[in-house]
Amino acid sequence: MVAISLIHRFTNQSIRFKLIVGLSVFVVPLLALLVFHSFYAIRVVSDQVAKSNENITALYMDQIDRNLQEMDMYLSMTAAFESDLLPLGFPEHDNRDQYQFAKINLFNKMESDYTQYNFVDLMFAYSVANHDILTNAPPAIASGDLRKMKLWLSELLQDESQVLAYGNKRWFVHQSGDQYYLVIIKSIGSVYIGATVEASKLMVPLNLLELGEDGRAILVSDKDDLMTVNQETDTESALLTDERFKETTIRQKEEYLQVRKRSSQGDFSLLILLPYRTILENLPALRSMSALIVLGSIIVFPMFYIFLSYTILAPINRIMSVMRRVRDGNLEYRVEKYPVSYEFGMMNEVFNTMVSQIKELKISVYEEQLLSQRAELKHLQLQINPHFFLNALNTIYNMAQLKNYPFILEMSSYMIQYMRFMFQTNLKFISLKDEVAHTKNYLRIQAMRFHDGFTYDILEPEYGSDLQVPPLLIQTFVENTIKHAITMDEPIKITIEMQLYEEKQPYLRIVIRDTGQGFPEEVLEQFNMGHPIISEEREHIGIWNIKRRLKLLYREDARVSLINSSHGGAQIEIHVPAN
Q1: CA-to-CA distance for 115 and 184, rounded, in angstroms?
Q2: Domain locations in the chain?
Q3: What is the pLDDT of residues 343-401, one digit of tens each?
Q4: Which has the minimum average pLDDT: 253-262, 354-363, 495-504?
Q5: Which spans are transmembrane here (predicted)?
Q6: Which of 66, 106, 374, 413 has the most CB atoms less than 10 A away?
Q7: What is the DSSP string of 52-69?
Q8: Where does 189-289 show beta strands of DSSP type E?
């Protein structure tokens, strides 16, 4: 048997053999190639390119910042030590010769110093009192372009709010037409000096970078304006309109690797856009391998899924379908026979055998439970009967000594009716009308015993007298009330109310009230916890028995609650289904 089991376990009908072969042939090689080539090689190359471009971006931005810082220091020194700036702060007509002489000296100085700062387009000085601007004359700028630059510089310097915002601070971005400029202004009283740099001029060194056909190196303002790209024609401008980029952060969007470095001297940044296809264009073998892996996966995985579905998933689904039906109580279903693996065949056979055994066992247990419940119900009903017999017989005996024959006759009649009812309590259910009649008979006997010390009132429902209820349902609670509530000190009254209600399902509500002292707290606590009720004086066997009987008959559809009424006395409320 052991040899046969091993043969079945490792033949081509074995699920273990099929899983091992399937995983080895299809999954393992594909995963190994995909993980090794795609994740390792591409990630390493991409990270190295990103790091390299980040370093290049930082290097070029540092070079630009150094140039701008040199010009900033030059202007600060000029503002501090150049005496020819003072006459420009006064109206020209006050001392025309001195004013013109100062302008000539400043022009010569700017022309001489310009050779040291040839990355600057213009150096300027502006007299606020005379609305007069003085610049150098770079040979690379045509006279017409120079006039245009002087014009927009004059308009900018005449705007007091602009000068207050940017004066004596960092380089700021200014747009004139389609051109962007970096401008710096130093204020000396009512005289401004400064310099301008065309943004595209700063990009000349970066033209030597190999960024590929679609790669870009761009200057971007803090407002994400493209300073060195024609926004009307450049297709990459849309990449910068979505969100602001963080300083020196690599943002990998769908197609571009983006590296950005913010300037320390001005309100702009250097941005490098590098297409991912450019990054990987030097890895043709890797790209071909990745394409083959993807293509192979598209072809192989559906085939593997069909194979897995036929050999494993379909048999499991058949078993699960039958298991769900069995879970819902349908023990007639069995797993049908199909050509399946050895293990699934064994599982199906064992499962079908187990369901058959469960069905037989469930029937046997159910029958035993019915017999047990019937015996327990009968036992509980018989426990209630002897409670007041002794007191009733003792009352008749005393009346016989007094020769009160009418009383004896009436009491005997009630006792006969009571005993006749008790002899038929082997029934599970009786009509509500019979239960009320029996309770009235019991109350008359008790009223004859206690005379004026006990009264009662029964409010019967307007309809539903033929409703079936457990025998002794009301009488048991009435008997319990008389046993524990009646004393010789004060008269006691019992009120019984019955009413039918319609909610999700119809039910009968029975309320029994008395005017006694109410339930002790320990009795209420034990009852709510589901324990047998035992007070300091005696056991409340009747209440516990009827609660147990309702549990056996109605499961969770019936309930009993005990409370102490706010007006004094105990109150018992019973809910039973009206069916």
Answers
A1: 19
A2: 2-44+284-326, 45-282, 388-577
A3: 777 878 888 888 888 878 877 776 676 566 555 555 555 554 555 677 778 888 888 88
A4: 253-262
A5: 20-42, 291-316
A6: 106
A7: HHHHHHHHHHHHHHHHHH
A8: 191-198, 216-221, 251-252, 256-262, 268-275
